[in-house]
Each structure stands twice: as structure tokens, then as C-alpha cells.
Amino acid sequence: MTTTHVHRWTTKSRHRTSEGTVVYDGCTCGRLRIRRATTLRAEETLAVTPVRTGGLHAPHP
Fold first, then answer.
1. What is the rounded distance in angstroms from the CA atom of residue 15 to the CA atom of residue 42?
2. What is the pLDDT of residues 28-57, one digit of tens each?
3. Is the separation of the CB atoms in 27 and 9 below 8 Å?
């Protein structure tokens, strides 16, 4: 049986760049999302990481 997970994104940090604002979000499941908000008030998801065990601060293999 497969359960659907509804992500609850929380902004961890944001940084202004020449191409817009890059925003790093984390979910309670351990997944990270990187998105870019432009001056046109449009958002684009740049990446979503796979779930890592051990939470957001787990070391990369």
C-alpha cells in the first residue's frame, strides 16, 4: 500500500541573486527544495532532493 505524503515546506534560507531570489525550503520528511522567485512574481522549482535519513542535517554520503 502506498501512502501519499503532503509536503509541508518551510523556508530555511533565501538569497538575492542577479536572476531573482533563490529560496531553500525543507520538508518534515527530510526532502529539500530549491526554487527561484523572479521579479515577475513567478516561481520556478529548480530542484527537489530525495529523502535523506537522519533529517535535514544528515551528512552526505
1. 16
2. 888 888 888 776 666 667 767 776 555 444
3. yes
d(CA 34, CA 11): 10
Interacting residues of 22 by C-beta distance below 8 A, sequence separation 6+: 14, 15, 34, 35, 36, 46
Q: How far is CA 35 from CA 3, 8, 14, 47, 51, in A?
A: 25, 15, 9, 7, 17
Contacts of 11 (CB under 8 A, 6+ apart): 23, 24, 25
Whether residue 37 contacts residue 45, with contact meaning beta carbons closer than 8 Å, is answered with no
Whole-angstrom distance, CA of residue 21 vs CA of residue 14: 7
Tell me the CA end-to-end span of the chain in Å, nearest whole number: 29
